[in-house]
Amino acid sequence: MTRTQQIGVIIGLAIVALLTFLRAGDPQFLRSIRDVSFDEYQRISPRPFENLPVRVIDIDEASLREFGQWPWPRDRLALLVNRLSEMGAAAIAFDILFAEPDRLSPRAVVGTVSGVDPGLLAQLPDNDEIFADAMAGKPVVLGFGLSNEGTYRPPVKAGFAFTGESPITAPPYLKAATPLRPRFEANATGLGHISLNPGNPSPVVRAVPLFLTDGEQFYPNLALEALRVAQGASTYVVAGAPDVPGIMTSAKIGDLVVPVTAAGELWLYVSPDRAERYISARDVLAANGVSPEVSAAINGSIVFVGTSAAGLQDIRVTALGENVPGVSLHAQTVEQILNGRYLSRPDWADGLEIFAVAALGSLLVVLTTFVSPAVALACGLTITALAFVASWLCFSYAGLLFDPLAPIVSGSIAHFAATSFRILVIDRERREVRRAFGQYLSPSLLYRIEHTPGALRLGGDDRELTVMFVDVRHFTEISERLPPTAVVGFLNTLLDALSRHVVANEGTLDKFIGDSIMAFWNAPVDVADHETKAVRAALAMRETLAGLNAADAFGFGKDQPVGIGIGIHTGLACVGNMGAETRFNYSAVGDAVNVAARIESSCKEVGFDILISENTAKQLGSALLDAGTIGLKGKSGRTRLFAVVGDERLAKSPDFAELDQFHRQLVEALRLHSPQQTRRIIGAIRHKFVTMAPALAEFYRRISRRADHFRDEPISEEARPAE
């Protein structure tokens, strides 16, 4: 691992640690995101509506048109209670506050007139008394609200039993309540708070507190009291955590056990708002009596009395995004308990999600740094998909709420940070290497330097290489007649055009040595048919130079063409980084390099522009001619060379086959020292074949002077180049 990668990992893991601590702190914005994700689950798969014995008596717009604006006189509410009781309602719960006396009561109205006889006033009916009398002995549950003023707390109509450690401090705190009329308070069978989300700034009601506490006493909510009264139960059994005080786990009401959060809340699993849940108050108070359908719907049902009229401003938002009357949520609370389909978030869910943030973030940082951002992204997307699937399955089959977004978002941030560091630092270093060496090294070498830690270190390996040397002919004369800047321009034009063919044929451009080029094949990575590719590069150089001369690209005039000599040899060499620790060069050294350089020098003596050794020629199918055996400087023996006339296509042509036949006859004549036959064959070749390659004329003009180069044993058929 390089130092840069170490720094990248440290920075990435530091970001992951920060995100982990952030999730552990669980700020409000993270809770909001988590709540929204759980809302989406309910929207995808809401709780199905079932026709359970729960109804809402709705003081709707039609009822207000029929009986006038709210509030109604309470003798009408007494009539409502009596009719619901007669129809067999199991419980009648009012989601309405009765904190003040009825201003529409006849006694209250007449009492505002001065001079009325007190005795007469006492004989007038009082609507509050009528309503209180109507409640007596009936399963009526009244609601109370929360107040920030006073010290009033309503009486508790039920008893409480506890298991486990005391959860008395678990629910939201009740400072004070809105006072109820004394007779209402006394005659009601049950009392419950109507607050749906106390202390929660969100307009969406996702969980309802089943209890409030003043530190000494629990106060149930309206839905729970209605359920208790409907069952005729007298006691709540509240379970606390076995070993930790201040945590609630469940509540038992009659025969029903309700799992709750640590704060005694019920996660609402809501169903879409349906008309079947509502009965208009107008239909219950109809002057001509109640219809059989309404009576059947009320019989045995838990009934909640509330309002959906927009002007009365009791509209709430559910997890499904629907605006519903607040009384509907009390009804849905009871429906959910009767249905038995609960949502819950285990107390270990936070720990699991915090661990997932740390683990996923660390994994993506490591993958991004050491593998690639693409692989890390693929792994991240896979993990994301698995997290969503696992979270969804837990919700669908077990009602468990696990947040998939926190680890996924944190992992995405960690991946983005690691990727950014890689792009800005690690990949920038690679781009700098490519910019610096892209004109000199083959793509394969660049790839190795970019992706292999420590590739730019001293040392080498023994490999079979095909080495090429290219030299400009008469460069000394050219440089003498040109100013220095013109010489540089000439070399840049020529060497740039020629060196492109090295890289294009998978070669490694080793170095420029004045007017010369050194290149090799089969390092740093294996190159198949490296001998063939080296010769193809040489032939392409010949063609490119001919084009430059024809276009007078150097400005010397078309009658002064520039020439080059190319020598190629295949053999064992040591290739690697040579030099000092602070400045080195990827190069090759060894006998193969020296032989290639000497072969290039022999081009002048032979009179041909591309010469290759026998080692290289054995692997080729190119158009080759025997150039004889030549003593190379520094070599004790003689080296057989071949002139490269053209590529594989030319080698298969009838014209070259005929030239090759003439050339073999010429070589035999030279070996036997037959001047007359030599001149005849050379004449025939010049007449028919010198146009096949520009250098053939000079090659055959000099060949008779080199008769001693062909005095060695002729080439055996096994040693001949491939055809």
Describe the model.
- This protein has 723 residues and is an alpha/beta fold.
- The chain folds into three domains: 3-40 and 346-435, no CATH class; 48-339, no CATH class; 443-710, Alpha-Beta Plaits (2-Layer Sandwich).
- It is built from 25 helices and 26 strands.
- Strands 19, 20, 21, 22, 23, 24, 25 and 26 form an eight-stranded mixed beta sheet that branches.
- The model has no long low-confidence stretch (mean pLDDT 87).
Observed structural traits:
723 residues, alpha/beta, Alpha-Beta Plaits, 3 domains, eight-stranded mixed β-sheet, six-stranded parallel β-sheet, 20% strand
Oligomer: single chain
Strand content: 15-25%
Structural class: alpha/beta
Give the helix tally.
Answer: 25
Please give the radius of gyration in angstroms: 49 Å
Overall shape: it is rod-shaped
Q: Layout of SSEs?
A:
Elements: H1 3-25, H2 28-44, E1 54-59, H3 61-67, H4 74-86, E2 91-94, H5 106-111, H6 118-123, H7 127-135, E3 140-144, E4 146-147, E5 159-163, E6 176-177, H8 182-187, E7 190-193, E8 207-209, E9 211-213, E10 218-220, H9 222-231, E11 235-240, E12 248-253, E13 256-259, E14 265-267, E15 278-280, H10 281-284, H11 292-298, E16 302-307, E17 315-317, E18 323-325, H12 326-339, H13 349-370, H14 373-398, H15 405-437, H16 443-451, E19 459-472, H17 475-481, H18 484-504, E20 508-513, E21 516-521, H19 530-550, E22 564-579, E23 584-589, H20 591-606, E24 610-613, H21 614-617, E25 623-631, E26 638-646, H22 648-651, H23 654-671, H24 675-688, H25 696-703
Parallel strand pairs: 1-15, 1-16, 2-3, 2-16, 3-7, 5-11, 22-24
Antiparallel strand pairs: 4-6, 8-14, 9-10, 11-12, 12-13, 17-18, 19-21, 19-22, 20-21, 22-23, 24-26, 25-26
